[in-house]
Amino acid sequence: MSTLADKGFKLSKNVFFKYILGKATGLMGKPVKIGILLTSAYEKLTTAKSNESGFEQIKGIMMRFMRLVKAYMNGTYRDINTKSLLLGVAVLLYVVTPLDIIPDFIPILGFADDLSLMAWFITAFQEELQKFQVWEEGSVAIGHS
């Protein structure tokens, strides 16, 4: 049986996700559109309900990634691999896109592909996310949030 992250890895190789990745690349030079994406992703993540184990943990880590994108866009944090940043933004785009592999209006299953893609991203880019967490905690400790 494959793990949630394994299912997400398979989704990351899907033609639709590759299309979304292209869209993410185009967004990187558009701070206003990134802001709208972050707001949409935040709203979807905070209203989503799931019985999946670890959902709250995945949600918390994705919220951290959204803060990373915001810090990157405002220039306060740049210590991230560009590919990691683009893949993460593509995952957020996938999450907020109403038409994905399994449409979100299908109860439980509709959010399962989003969850698996987020789990894959978190697993694959854990080091980048941890590096940001250390930076973020240091910034808060010295009052530069």
TrEMBL record:
<dbReference type="Pfam" id="PF06803">
    <property type="entry name" value="DUF1232"/>
</dbReference>
<feature type="transmembrane region" description="Helical">
    <location>
        <begin position="80"/>
        <end position="99"/>
    </location>
</feature>
<dbReference type="InterPro" id="IPR010652">
    <property type="entry name" value="DUF1232"/>
</dbReference>
<keyword id="KW-0812">Transmembrane</keyword>
<feature type="domain" description="DUF1232">
    <location>
        <begin position="86"/>
        <end position="120"/>
    </location>
</feature>
<keyword id="KW-1133">Transmembrane helix</keyword>
<keyword id="KW-0472">Membrane</keyword>
<protein>
    <recommendedName>
        <fullName>DUF1232 domain-containing protein</fullName>
    </recommendedName>
</protein>
